[in-house]
Amino acid sequence: MTEPPFVKRGQTITATLWNQLCAAVRACRIIAGDGVRLREMPDGTIITFDGDGANFAHPLQVSLVGTQAASIRPGTVNRVEAKINSVLLAGTERMPPPLLKFGKPMLDAEGRGFICVEVTCREQDWSVEKVEVVQVADPNTDDGEASDSHGGSGGAVALPGRRARYPLAMLRQRKGGKLDLYQITFFDLQHRAALSPDRKTATRHFFWQ
Amino acid sequence: MIAADAWNKLVAQVKRARPMRGVRADTKEHPRGVIVSGDTHSFWRHPWFINARWEWKDDGTGEWRAFIRPGFVNGRDAHIPMPADWPDGTPPEDNAPSERDVSLTNEPQPYLILDGWRNPLQPANVSATLSGQIIAAPAEGYPKYFEKLGVKAAAKGGDISKPGAMEGEFDATRTREIRAMDVVLAKARLGTRLQIDVHDPLLDAQTETISTVFLNDALRTTGGRAKLRAVPKYVPPPQQSLPQMYGTLLNAGDAQLDELKLATIWIVSPPDAATDAKPDESWTPYPQHFVFWNLQHASRLIPPRAPSPPLRLHTGLAGGIGDRINDALLSFVNDQYAEAEAFLNQADASGMFWST
């Protein structure tokens, strides 16, 4: 932009000067770019930025691969490493990091599904024996199908076979089939089962960071 | 004729209006204007992050709205109650509720309307002493950060006849007003209420039994969903736990929900705002977050087993009359045992939140 000059008293405002001023005004007009919203007001223009924010790489981070699979960063529950189909999330010397291939995702009536860690506890002391990553419609049902359950007393529901699930991320299917992902867990997890008096069953499971 | 002064003022204004790149922004100059872009990787947005902004409505008025980044409680997305005809204005069916819960992960995303701001510069209340003095409580105040922005001083309270009691000390460099609202998360849970049944001590060896009734009305109506709301000032729900054993007799039922304050939204005016000014599009919001991660919530108890049967001593003495006397004598022991059992079985179902 060529800035119009200041003038002295008595100096003529020529057509050239006027056109320079018009060009400067035009060049200062604000145009919305990426992530910007503008609202023109009599006293000025309000500029608002809508950024998504920086990435935060963390354990158990879920990333969608298309709409039928997901990759998960390595993470642990009670320091037991999570696996997909018995393959470590970090992969092995012979096998690359696995993908969770769920195909058509299990969803509830509102298009919600979950990618969870499923913890299986040892019979003797209820410590964590294995951790598998699964995709379900409801973490608190035995078969993973959707239910009307509202969670009751809180914590994770004790599933048959000394199991419990905890969600890593929620899937939400939109009209048109697009799948959005919302990360729920950002850290390695700790787990403990709340046992019934006979210590043979759990009343519920607790997870924390 | 365009005077030189007028021309120079115009040129000065044009220079001032020229957009320049600042923090986390980018500009690109063109003959037809300047393209202004935001830096989309400025910082990571955590769950429950609040974006408060002024939104214009179709009728030309506007309002402050809080858009909240999706957060989860027990793995389930939280909800905000919205009008039944939101977002497209389609009126609800007859007899349908006037509100419906909309998930934070829905499209379009729901929002909280920020209305009814509290004023932290003025005393919260005024009271009178027995001697006839009128005393103002100290104003709530605000974080120290806002002093540097030029926000007025808060009232110190005290005798209202003395300066500084009802309004903060005057400072010509601090002329901005400030208001605040709280964003609260509520999670429904099982509630409890004590039920007292009266018995005949001669027949039942007990004058009263105390049982805990579990309530799930709030869980059923909300479907266990966590809900968000904006309030002028958050007041925690009344607590029912009482230290005295006999205090459990007074438990008439709890609120059936637990609450957590997620954030306080402060909003600052331009300079020289009036003391009774209301926040409009020229004010600037500053959310102060207290929760940064998704949450878990659990009640401290799950419905326990049935209460123990009362003690009885039946010896057949005096043709059975002695048994009735024994039962009457034992009734006091059984009453106290029932109260202790109700207390120790923790008839208080209040829960707690923790982050994951």
Explain what the structure shows.
The complex is a heterodimer of chains A (209) and B (356). Chain A is mainly β. Helix content of chain A is 6%, strand content 40%. Chain A has a 4-stranded antiparallel sheet, with no helix packed on it. In chain A, strands 4-5-10 form a 3-stranded antiparallel sheet, with no helix packed on it. In chain A, strands 13-17-16 form a 3-stranded antiparallel sheet, with no helix packed on it. The mean pLDDT of chain A is 89. By secondary structure, chain B is α+β, with helices and mostly antiparallel strands. In chain B, strand 10 and strand 11 form a beta hairpin. Chain B is elongated, with a radius of gyration of 30 Å. Chains A and B meet through helix 1, strand 1, strand 2, strand 3 and strand 14 of A and helix 1, strand 1, strand 2, strand 3 and strand 6 of B. Strand 1 of chain A pairs parallel with strand 2 of chain B, so a sheet runs across the interface.
Strand content of chain A: 35-45%
Note the run of SSEs of chain B as H and E: HEEEEEEEEEEEHEEEHEHEEEEHE
What is the CA-atom radius of gyration of chain A, in angstroms? Answer: 28 Å
- Give the mean pLDDT of chain A: 89
How are strands sequenced across the largest beta sheet of chain A?
12-11-14-15
In DSSP terms (H or I, runs of 4 or more residues), the helix count of chain A works out at 1
How much of the sequence lies in strands of chain B comes to 25-35%
What's the number of extended β-strand segments of chain B?
20
Mean pLDDT of chain B: 81
